[in-house]
Amino acid sequence: THVYQPYRTAYHFQPRKNWMNDPNGPLYYKGWYHFFYQYNRDAAVWGNITWGHAVSRDMVHWRTLHTALKGDKWYDMKGVWSGSATFLDNGVPVLLYTGWAINGTDQSSIRGQTQAMAVPEDPSDPLLREWDKSPHNPIALAPPGFNDSMFRDPTEAWKGYDGVWRMLVGAVKGTDQSIGTALLYKSTDFNKWNFTGEIQSVAGTGMWECPDIYPVHVKEKTGLRLSARGPHVKHVLKVSLDRNKHDYYSVGTYDEKTDLYTPDDTKLDTGLGLRYDYGKFYASKTFFDQNKNRRVLWGWANESSSVQDDIEKGWSSVQCLPRHIWLDEESSANLVQWPIEEVDKLRRNEMTEKNVEVGVGKVVPVKAAKGAQLDIVVDFALPEKSEGLEQNPNLLAEMGHLTCSDLVTKGSNAAGPHSFGPFGVHVLATGDLQERTSIFFHLIHDGKHQNWKTLFCGDQSQSSLQQDVDKTVYGSYVRVDDSDKVLSVRILVDHSIVESFAQGGRTVMTSRVYPELAVKDAAHVFLFNNGTEPVTVKSVSTWEMKSVNIKFYKP
Ligand code: DQQ
C-alpha cells in the first residue's frame, strides 16, 4: 500500500487489514493452534462482525484462513459475536457464539442476542476450515426478565460431577441494569440448554462481557482442563466490564454442587479487584493448551488513535502476545503472566550491560538497543531497607493516594521524603527525548514493616507529538517479596504496542503509542532516574525482535 505504516506491528497478530476485536475460541487441534477473532471484513471500524480465523504451529507465525463464521441465519444475521471453543467427549471441538438475531422473521418472538453453536464440517481437517451451524440453533435464549440485548459471550462448556454440561453467558440485571452477572446454563445433550441460575453477580459493575472461568493449580505452573477438580485446584473468574473496558478477575472457589463461585478476597472491590493488565487489554480469553500443558491468555489491544487515523491506515487493533498464566505460588492471591516461551525464538543480537549507575536526575542511553522491535529486561537494585521509620505508622495511609499520574505531573515532589523513585526505562524515544514512552517504578515506604509499596507505571503523556491520540497514564502496584533480589521489568516493544511485565509478571501493563519521530531506527532506549537517590541497574539486556510471518489468505 502507499499509506505510511509506522504503527503496524511486526510480531503481534494482525489481519492484513480492517477492524479486529475480541479473541474468540482459541484452541489446539491436531498440531495446530487456532485463533478466531471478531472481525469486520469491510472496514477499519467495528461492524458486520464475523469470526476471522488464523492458524499457527507455535502461536508466533500465522496463516489466516477464510472467515469461519458469518451472519447468514436469522438468529445471527446482524452479527456473529464473541464465544468460545469446547472439546466434546469424542475429541472434536465445537464453537459456541452469540448471534445477533434479525427482527420480524417468522421467529419474530426471538430478538436480540441468542447463543448458537457451530461444528466442524470435517473433523479430520487439522485446519478446521469449514464450520456448520447446528440445526438446534439457537441453543439458548435469555431467561425471562433479562434484557435480550445484554445476553452474550458464552464460555467454554464444562462437564460437572453429575455428567451435565455447563456454560456461562454474560448478562446484567436489576431495575437500573447495574448488577453484572454470569448466567449458568446446563445441558445433557449439548443441543438444548436451560438457564439454572447465576454463578456470581456483583452490584455496580454493569454488563459482564466475555466471562471466563477456569481452574488453576495451587502449586504448579502447569495448566488444567476445565473439568479439573480436587484439593490442588482453585478457580479464577474473569469478566470484561463494558462500562470501563477493563478485564477484572478474582481468585476463588467454584462449588460444583451449588454451582456458585465465591472470591477469596471479597474486600477487594466486591471481589473483582484485580486486573489482568493495567493498560489497554480487553475481552480476553484463556484456553488450555494440551500441547504444552499450560493455560494461555489472549487479550485484545484496541487503538489509542482517532477513528480517522484508523480509517486512513486501513486497520484497527492488534492482539497482545499470548501469555502463559498461572497462580502465583507465593501469594495464591493473584495470577502471574508471562509471554509464551515461543516468543523468545524471535530474539537476536543480545546485548547485556551490568551495574549501570543512574545518578539523580540522570538519563543514560542503552546504546545497544535501537529500533521499534525490542525485548528489554532490566533489573534494578532494591533500595536498602530504611531504619527508624516506624515512628510514623500512618505513612502509607498518607501516601496511599499517590497515583502514577501524580508522579508524572509532579515528579518525586509528589511523593515526599519516604519514597524512592521514580526510575525506569524510556522506550520509543527520540535522542532528545521529546518523544518517549516511560515505564517506571516508584517505591513508597510503608512506615510500619520497613517494607516498600511499589507503584508500576506507564507514562504515555510524551509518547507522541501528535495531539489526537490517547495519552492516558497507566499504573498499579506490584508486590515485591522479601526474598526478591531485584526489581525487574520486561518490556516488549513492537512499533505501536508496548507490553510491560513487572516482577516476573505479577503486574502487567500494555500501552498503545504513536510516535511521530521515534519510529523504526529513530527509536532509542534510555534508563532514567527522576528520584532523589542514585539507582543501580544490576543488568540491562536487550534483544532485537525478528518479524513474524503472517501468510494472508487469498481467495
Ligand atoms: N465484543 C463483542 C461482544 C462482546 C464485546 C462484539 C466485547 O460479543 O460483548 O464484537 O468487546
UniProtKB/TrEMBL annotation:
Instruction: Report the residue ranges that make up the Glycosyl hydrolase family 32 N-terminal domain in this protein.
Output: 12-339
Q: Which CDD domains does this one have?
A: GH32_Fruct1-like
Q: Which GO terms describe its molecular function?
A: hydrolase activity, hydrolyzing O-glycosyl compounds
Matching entries from SUPFAM superfamilies are given as: Arabinanase/levansucrase/invertase (SSF75005), Concanavalin A-like lectins/glucanases (SSF49899)
Phosphoprotein keyword on record: no
Which GO biological process categories is it annotated with?
A: carbohydrate metabolic process
Which Pfam families does the record associate with it? Glyco_hydro_32C, Glyco_hydro_32N
Any idea which UniProt keywords this protein has?
Glycosidase, Hydrolase, Signal
Glycosyl hydrolase family 32 C-terminal domain residues are 342-544
Concerning its family, UniProt says: Belongs to the glycosyl hydrolase 32 family.
Q: What is this protein called?
A: Beta-fructofuranosidase
> Origin organism of this chain?
Physcomitrium patens (Spreading-leaved earth moss)
